Amino acid sequence: MMIRYLLPVLATALLGSPARAQTTLDTTAPTTVANSPANTEEDDGRISGLIALGGGVIPAYEGADKYQATPFGLAAVRYRGIEFNLAGPELKVDFGGGGSFLFGPVIGLSNSRSRSDADGRVKLLDTIGNSASFGGFVGYRFGGNEAGQGRFVVSLQATKDSKKEKGVTVDAGLSYAAIRTQRVFATFDISARFNDKKYTRTFFGVTEAESVASGLDAYRPGGGISRVSAGVTAGYQLSRHWGVIARAGGGTFTGDAADSPIVRDGSISYGQALLGISYAF
């Protein structure tokens, strides 16, 4: 299931919503959950933040042409200059203190693929279970006016899975806060993902035994850039605390991932649509 990859992008735009700016947090939408801009108000030691709940439609697994509905939950809380950002199964802690530089640890759950997710010949492949992943991120934000409109955020995140066969993932991203008013915001983002050969072989490879069972060609891919994606997240503030947020995005697999029989049997491109309600405090 691809929820681990898709949720953080929505979460970052949520951090840039007008409601968040009306509290002690003046934020915009970067490409990682922890990338929130500097506060316009001094941190007085109080807890402040934002939560969101909603649902959406995402690919069932990496390379799928099958989509499934999914709920999602997000939370971003700041206390004494430290920001905790939870997006589905991924937690980031930003120790940047609201400055231009962002950095901190990441912990989460990796993607998975079950027989209930898959269909056709992919359903006959071995299942891939959930496991923990650990890593860190860095980022830099610049530009924009006092409200955060026009601000850019660049980010880099690396994680390693606790199961050695799932390998290493590196995500690089750039976001731009195009609109930022008291009630409306819109943020555009682009990103690319690098996976080492262990990850690529787990999620896009087909062993000889799996080939016999499924009829897919055996495939042993290498590492490299596995996908590029882009999207837009927008929101409208209904009141000081309540708002709505939506995201539409998509991307394409590249390199050895794109050549996988799993992707050829499914789809080389993917999309997502998410809608939620947010509450700032």
TrEMBL record:
GO cellular component: cell outer membrane
Protein's UniProt keywords contain Signal: yes
Residues annotated as signal peptide: 1-21
Compartments where located: Cell outer membrane
UniProt entry keywords in alphabetical sequence: Cell outer membrane, Membrane, Signal
InterPro entries found in the cross-reference section: MipA
Keyword Magnesium: no
Main localization (coarse): membrane
Family statement: Belongs to the MipA/OmpV family.
Listed PANTHER family: MLTA-INTERACTING PROTEIN-RELATED
Name of the molecule in the record: MltA-interacting MipA
Source organism phylogeny: Bacteria, Pseudomonadati, Pseudomonadota, Alphaproteobacteria, Sphingomonadales
